[in-house]
Design brief:
10-stranded mixed beta sheet; 18% helix; alpha+beta; 3 helices; outer membrane lipoprotein receptor (LolB), chain A; 170 residues
Length: 170
């Protein structure tokens, strides 16, 4: 659920980041082909609400998310979920959840109360799934031209010592 909520957040961020216009097409055009970075907070609407606080960097199909001590790295082909406190890394192929990053327009109908400022955005996800009802706030939103090589989105498991558990689920 944590990963899904974050992927939803990223998709919403892709829609909202640095937008100045009111139409969905204007929002998408502003972020198309850009590199995005932002800080976020996301609160789920579960019976026991869970708050996620972290940072994200997105470029095309690649991203790095840091959230409450965990990290998710994805270079578009492989995803590494890193739990630093437990010294565990899960390696897997990206799934359908990441498709939302590729097509953020799929989520436009599922966001209400979208408020976009120059470097901030907030709203509520009303779509289906575990993130239904989650509220999000994005701050320090920055866009820039993509760097293009993507190597910074690959997690290096070779740099870890023998105390780490690496589980490859691909």
């Amino acid at each position: 659920m944590k990963r899904f909520a974050l992927i939803v957040l990223l998709a919403v961020a892709s829609i909202a980041a640095a937008a100045q216009g009111s139409s969905a097409q204007a929002l998408l055009k502003k972020i198309e082909g850009k590199r995005l970075s932002f800080e976020f907070s996301l609160t789920t609407a579960d019976k026991v609400p869970v708050k996620h606080i972290g940072t994200a960097l997105i470029e095309g199909k690649s991203y790095i998310i840091s959230d409450n001590g965990a990290e998710i790295w994805c270079n578009g082909k492989v995803r590494w979920t890193v739990d630093n406190s437990a010294k565990e890394v899960y390696i897997e192929a990206p799934g359908e959840e990441e498709d939302m990053l590729i097509s953020p327009e799929k989520l436009l109908g599922s966001v209400t109360k979208l408020i976009v400022g120059e470097a901030s955005a907030s709203g509520k996800y009303t779509g289906e799934g575990p993130a239904k009802g989650a509220t999000f706030v994005l701050t320090s939103i920055k866009t820039s031209e993509p760097l293009g090589n993507g190597s910074e989105f690959t997690f290096n498991t070779g740099a870890l010592d023998s105390s780490w558990v690496i589980t490859d689920l691909r």
